[in-house]
Design a protein that fits this description.
Chain lengths: ~325, ~325, ~325, ~325
């Protein structure tokens, strides 16, 4: 393996730059040339590719977003798009790839591997919704961003004895809501993985108030419904001087947490080692604190599981 | 003056606790007893009043919100409410008051002064929309919170070449938008104080993109319109892969900035000194870095002016 | 079990309050009365004990330090001290205890268990130097605090092309240095667990400069030597315009990170469950993301192991 | 004026990049070419000069340090050095300059003006020790960094009932200590501008403890003495379980606060406007919230005054 390419695909996540740095520096330490591919598969097809130097990845470990930019490019699902991409790999003499992104971006990586270009996937998304890894790159930062926001909302909620419904990201997964809910001391956590009953939530809030609690905070995963919708349902059961807040894209940005930087650094270095061993079509995970990898085909057929013990613990800690 | 009362009224703001601490400690240094009045005028009327000790205000200078809680209480506009409040002041032997809040809460303070209970107002609001003061307690913290959010949004905006419309607080005033817009490096700032033209904004964004700018950020004051409404108008003039974010109540919370803590400490101490001189019916300001005060009647007849030089400067810095 | 006591012992750590809240709320959810013991074993012996309510632990999950205060009290190693403590437990009718602190504080807990008062230990220290747990409560926050400081130091180091030696805490353990070093993009990590050669470090710095690197950052564990001493040794091999910074006690404080709050919440709840099962003389751990417990006697005979894979990875990422 | 140069000189400060951006963008808006001069006067003499584009200053407003690097270069005090610098200005066709730095760097700027190259100085230093300006670029960020550190130290100080001596920067000026002391709720502030008596400080700490205060924090300006020295003197008058912390270079870095970004943007734009009017040999200030300028010669003959009202207020707020 003489030349490898790196790209980031799908939604950006804090720590992607730390992963890019790790892949590049590790590869260079083996004398491998490194090429950056801008805008994911779109840039691959368009040949938006450049040679990276050590300095290209200097002072990026602490930066959010991705210096390689990212884009969604459904056309790569078609063989036509794949062949165009392979032409570019030939043109630049790139032997293998590291793709950092959500599992959606793994399909393209598998296709390239099938065409003889080994590709390894790194789980880069704030949603933590990828199987065979306990944590994805960006999740810890996003959770901390949400918790800092909840801490701020608590200030004003307590000052006015209000109820706040805080909508957080996570697409179909409740991970951000579960972790941020427990860490934020939320009174209620509403996630797609668990049934809920708005009337019961209303009763709980009333009980908390009767007990003298100055504020109530409900953390709502976006996969369930919109904050305003939930708030309106809640208001049918009483006036809680309720307010809703949608944290939005703020959750995607920011300087990565120490955890995410370390996770990205370990995974990035490991990806290069596996490519060196001639492996491809695999995705890297961190399971029980150990670096692991699995065939992408196995990922496609399995589902991520959220840590629902957090949901149960919170029932006894909030009440 | 033997006993003074403190209350926070209207929307809470970071730094209110620092102001409470300053009023309490300064008064105690003169041997004056200090009483905390919970929930603003509502608590005054209800007699939700307690004696404060030095320790009551210990370790609160760094806390957001207000330990005295806040509430809106329109009933205090009626003499009936005022007389009930005065009964409570008599009952607790309180001679004078410090009211921390927006200028709305100054009306009640003026009424109490007219009834013989000197009251001094402190400008506590994130909106910075109070006349005769360059800065209100809470404004600097809110602006920093918004800027940190814009910094995070820029990460993801740059990664995807998107346009973001960021709605910030400020009620009728554009101050938060102006300061956060300049400090956040916004490409456009939309405030109530200045005309705007969505088509022109769209043209500017197109020019920036043509020039290779990876992202565009529009900071929109809530007093103009909602972020979604603005975004929809924008989309009539082209597809900018636009997203909207409403920062919401996060802006009201958080540990106060150094500026807000110092401003609150100076104003709080000054309020006690003025009450000691037998003054009342006045509001404190910080003008040209000097502590000042004005009759509340003068405030009601004048209007706060935002620093629109920021608007003009930004035109040349963003483009 | 009708009444349990909680204390924090040894050095304070961010997340101790989250653990106190979790223990108290979990116990109350089972109808168990909860007593707070101030100042660790010193307060136990002195009877500085009070009944906790739900509200006692309200809004503390986000606060650094410990609301129960902490102290070192070597006298508790003597049976005399222990018997005095037991008298107090009898007096308050406390059946069992949760002790949050370093493994030093586990000895007292074991003695109490031997006397018939089941005690469970929770690993609360920023140093991460406790066996049978991958992470201690406070470690993640401390690492993030150090990384934020390194990010700031990098700004000024890069502006002046300087070399910085940053001394971090950890007592005999290199964990903070290893995690913060990798996450901070340190060029060199010096820890007690690994040999080092100052002359070699100097050579590496010279090579990095020859390669055009604008700054070099050395993260030094306090267990190795003092920053100034290291810097002086370094200067024997060349002028690197070196500066030293000792981060100091700032590392012990701050609002706990989301990880530490979740870890503390899980461990706190688990401690109550184990006491409910009649267990004692055990310490709780988080191993491979699973809650575990071990006999304190086993802890005393084993040693914590730092993740030295971080050391090796950094060699290839920094160069 | 067709071409201007920008440099940063002396110690770096947060907000220098925001100032560089403002100068560059403002000048470009007038069609003026902008040249970056690396490493201050050293780079000017060496001809380390490059043409800046709009994108050169893109996404730097939120970054600490200076993208133009900084260096001390005493040789520029000699005419020989100045003439070398002028040769470079001629070679690149640079007509005028903006120098961002401490007042030390203004001397070189004045010399260049005398040689016919108008130079305008911007006050860039965290120390706030420059006359004719209420605030320097970087001061507000440094104060906030110190206050965040004091907040963290308070956590651990309160948990252990300790006394902390926190040494902060400021060279000969007490501004950082005064602002951070008041904002941090320090019990004592020790600055060069005011006499102090260690025995009296010790007495005050004893009184605070007698009154039940859990911790005491002394903020010490580096211009007075070293933290350890102060602590040792303090210990002569009693055991306060005292600890010292030297915040060090962390104070120089970090993303600039909103205030510093706005101050830098206003001053940077103003500097270009003044050069456009043919002015030189002047330094810009912000006095009473208004942009001002003064002849550098006037600055050299006058002294910065710290806001000592903060010292007096704190006496009544801390006790």
């Amino acid at each position: 393996m003489k030349k490898i390419g790196i790209m980031t695909s799908g939604g950006d996540a804090p720590g992607m730059n730390a992963a890019i740095r790790a892949v590049a520096r590790r590869a260079m330490s083996f004398g491998i040339e490194v090429y950056g591919i801008n805008y994911g598969y779109a840039g691959l097809v368009a040949g938006d590719i450049f040679k990276m130097e050590r300095s290209t990845v200097g002072d990026i470990i602490n930066r959010g977003g991705t210096i390689l930019y990212s884009a969604r490019y459904p056309e790569f699902a078609q063989e036509e798009g794949q062949l165009k991409g392979i032409e570019q790999l030939k043109k630049f003499g790139i032997d293998a790839l590291v793709v950092i992104g959500g599992d959606g971006s793994y399909h393209g990586a598998l296709r390239l591997t099938e065409h003889g270009y080994n590709a390894v996937g790194l789980p880069g998304t704030i949603d933590n919704d990828i199987p065979y890894t306990d944590f994805t790159i960006g999740f810890d930062t996003a959770v901390n961003t949400v918790v800092e926001s909840i801490d701020k909302i608590r200030d004003t909620a307590a000052s006015h004895e209000r109820t706040f419904v805080v909508e957080v990201m996570g697409r179909g997964a409740g991970d951000i809501a579960l972790w941020a809910g427990v860490a934020g001391g939320a009174d209620e956590i509403i996630v797609p993985e668990r049934e809920f009953n708005v009337e019961q939530v209303a009763k709980n809030i009333q009980n908390l108030r009767a007990r003298g609690k100055k504020h109530t905070i409900v953390v709502l995963a976006e996969g369930v419904m919109h904050a305003d919708e939930f708030m309106n349902q809640l208001k049918q059961y009483g006036d809680f001087d309720a307010r809703s807040t949608v944290l939005g894209h703020v959750q995607r940005g920011g300087s990565p947490s120490a955890r995410d930087r370390v996770l990205a650094s370990k995974m990035g270095a490991y990806a290069v080692d596996l490519l060196n061993e001639g492996k491809g079509g695999i995705a890297i995970g961190m399971e029980a604190n150990e670096l692991t990898y699995h065939n992408m085909t196995d990922l496609f057929s399995s589902k991520h599981k959220a840590d629902l013990s957090l949901y149960d613990i919170n029932k006894t800690l909030a009440k």
